[in-house]
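Chain A, query sequence.
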Amino acid sequence: MVTKAQKFRLGIFIFTTSMLLIIFLVLVAGKKIMEKRDTYFIRYENKSVTGLQIGGPVKYHGINIGRVDEIKIEKNNVENIVVAIGVNGGTPIKTDVEATLVPIGITGLLQIELIGGSNEADFSTPHSFIKAGNSTFELITGKAEIIATKLEMLLNNFVNITDNENQQKIKN
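Chain A, predicted structure.
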């Protein structure tokens, strides 16, 4: 049989642990909930954002300043992807900043890296669009295409030099 003293001690234990849990949640989650964030948008025109996820990091010159809040297809033009990012309130973002997609390791996931920005440019206002820049992968792909074209030209010249007619001329 349970006595009144045992019930009282159990009640105090449950009340104390509940209060500690509530205080812990307020301290941990409350800080994130009360955090001031500015929202900006990025429009990627005719580009794939495969690997970019909601909650993914947003960095500015390598410093983590926010996260991806929303990814959606633009209603008026289905070739465009609009990404909403939330950055720490008061982060100085200039009008000449570009947003590039950067891979995170070898996982295939992407993050947004804000690059550029000059002291002479004006500050962007929250809820404005940030210009989409070229991603590292696009730059590498473009350079690889140029290298492949030049290599093809080099091989064609090599084939021309080593054809039968030129071999006979060299022997003579």
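The mean pLDDT is 85. The beta strands are 37-45, 57-60, 63-73, 80-88, 97-103, 110-116, 129-132.
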